[in-house]
Design brief:
Chain B: InterPro entries: ESCRT-2_cplx_Snf8, Snf8/Vps36, WH-like_DNA-bd_sf, WH_DNA-bd_sf. Chain B: It comes from Perilla frutescens var. hirtella. Chain B: This is Vacuolar protein sorting-associated protein. Chain B: Component of the endosomal sorting complex required for transport II (ESCRT-II), which is required for multivesicular body (MVB) formation and sorting of endosomal cargo proteins into MVBs. The complex is a heterodimer of chains A (about 180) and B (about 250). Chain A has five helices and ten strands. Chain A has helices at about 25-45, 70-85, 105-115, 125-130, 145-160, and strands spanning about 5, 5-10, 50, 60, 65-70, 85-90, 95-100, 125, 160-165, 175. The model of chain A has no long low-confidence stretch (mean pLDDT about 90). Chain B is mainly alpha-helical and about 250 residues long. Chain B is built from ten helices and six strands, in the order αααααβααββαβααββ. Chain B has helices spanning about 5-50, 55-60, 60-75, 85-90, 90-115, 120-130, 140-150, 175-185, 195-200, 205-215; strands at about 115-120, 160, 165-170, 190, 220-225, 235. Chain B has a three-stranded antiparallel sheet, with helices on both faces. Chain B has a three-stranded antiparallel sheet with strand order 4-6-5. In chain B, strand 2 (about 160) and strand 3 form a beta hairpin. Classes of the chains: A alpha+beta (about 180), B mainly alpha (about 250). At the A-B interface, strand 1, helix 1 and strand 5 of A face strand 5 of B.
């Protein structure tokens, strides 16, 4: 089984035609589905939040079989993830993609669990502390992408679970939980 | 017998011919009777055998295959009907029925990847994986028997021979001789190019392209434009299953 580090690559990754966008509809749909799953799973395992289409993202090429995904193919697969709500384009020219291997709702739920687990129901924290503070170590929140974190927090603010306010330092915001 | 001239002689000859004929018929009948008796004996011995070795027949594919051959020789088909002696004794009808259902399942599941054509080898492998829980091993012979029963139900299943290999077709796609020749050619490396087809089969480029495009449209082929020589390759998942593409090194 070929691996990228510890990650087990699926068999289709070693089959050259999968690196060419297929013209026949049914075949292409199957191809896109396989790639979507692979990209999402890989990003989840490695906690990758942003993928740049012109980058050397490890899944975009397989040196063993000497094949690489064309720009068109990369965009096709990521667009498919966007359509499914599992990713978002960060720019109009579709060069950078934000991966939501957890949906915003899932992240919001994780924040709530985190707050409850640490008895922070009525307390105040900075945004940065949520993702890099001592309490976050060992949880999924640790090291999470800031854009996604803000979106999840705003989602919770909408539901009245917390309030976001400007903090003492110019560049960080604070959260007052009311869960 | 000495021939005698005259009418008497002719009458004798006719009588002799009649007698020979009767004798011949008797001998034939004797032979048939003997054979029928032998067959009946053999059949009952076969039944005894089946009873005694019921477990072996169920568990051992090689043994099972030889048992089938023995049955065929005496004109017994254990799969002929789900009722009756054989089915009850061995439960073999159910065994092949269950296998048939699993085969249909696997073919349907792999259809998006191989266009409805799967190698017998791959099918057996997947069946083996699926049946890991049971202790009944499956051979390619078992698969073929189950598929032949499926055909009787009109499921559109068919086994195609490609050189030494066999492919199982589960879609109504008719493969003509041109398509078959390309598939055989593809067995070498798992893919072909238009040039190669033209060269090796001595076809015009039009004929090669047409055949390849049809196979592509039917979902039996996939294109690969990624080789550095810039030539398009047509890969055939049914002759080189994707599942066989595992590398052992890690990066």
């Amino acid at each position: 089984m070929q691996t990228l580090g510890e990650f087990k690559l699926p068999n289709f990754f070693n089959y050259p035609p999968y690196f060419t966008l297929q013209p026949v509809k049914d075949t292409r749909e199957k191809q896109i589905q396989l790639w979507k799953e692979l990209i999402l799973e890989y990003c989840r395992t490695h906690k990758i939040f942003v993928v740049g289409l012109d980058e050397d993202f490890p899944l975009f090429s397989n040196p063993v079989i000497e094949r690489s995904l064309s720009h068109e193919a990369r965009e096709a697969y990521l667009s498919a993830l966007v359509s499914e709500g599992r990713a978002e384009w960060l720019d109009k020219s579709h060069r950078k993609c934000l991966l939501l291997w957890h949906r915003i709702q899932d992240w919001a739920d994780l924040i709530i669990s985190f707050v409850k687990d640490n008895g922070l129901e009525d307390s105040v924290m900075t945004v940065e502390e949520i993702r890099s503070g001592v309490e976050s170590r060992g949880t999924e929140l640790h090291g999470m992408d800031r854009t996604i974190l803000m979106r999840a927090l705003k989602h919770l603010e909408h539901r009245g679970k917390l309030a976001i306010f400007k903090g003492t330092s110019a560049d960080d915001e604070g959260i007052k939980f009311s869960i | 017998m000495r021939r005698r001239p005259g009418i008497g002689g002719l009458q004798n000859a006719a009588a002799a011919r009649d007698q020979y004929r009767l004798l011949g018929e008797n001998v034939a009948k004797l032979r048939t009777d003997l054979m029928k008796e032998q067959l009946a004996t053999f059949r009952s011995q076969l039944e005894d055998f089946a009873r005694k070795h019921k477990n072996d027949i169920r568990k051992n594919p090689a043994f099972r295959s030889q048992f089938h051959e023995m049955c065929a020789k005496v004109g017994v088909d254990p799969l002929a009907s789900n009722k009756g002696f054989w089915a009850e004794l061995l439960g073999i009808g159910d065994f092949y029925y269950e296998l048939g259902v699993q085969i249909v399942d696997i073919c349907l599941a792999t259809r998006p990847l191989n266009g409805g054509l799967i190698s017998l080898e791959e099918l057996c492998k997947l069946l083996g994986q699926r049946r890991k829980g049971t202790r009944e091993a499956i051979s390619q012979d078992d698969c073929l028997r189950a598929i032949s029963k499926l055909k009787v139900l009109g499921n559109g299943f068919e086994v195609i021979s490609l050189g030494k290999k066999k492919l199982v077709r589960s879609v109504p796609t008719e493969l003509n001789k041109d398509h078959n020749e390309i598939l055989e050619l593809a067995q070498g490396q798992g893919f072909v190019t238009v040039d190669e087809v033209q060269r090796r089969l001595s076809w015009s480029s039009g004929r090669a392209t047409d055949a390849l495009e049809t196979l592509l449209e039917e979902g039996l082929a996939m294109i690969d434009d990624g080789h550095k020589d810039g030539r398009r390759r047509y890969w055939f998942p049914c002759v080189s299953p994707v599942s066989s593409y595992t590398a052992s090194e890690s990066i």
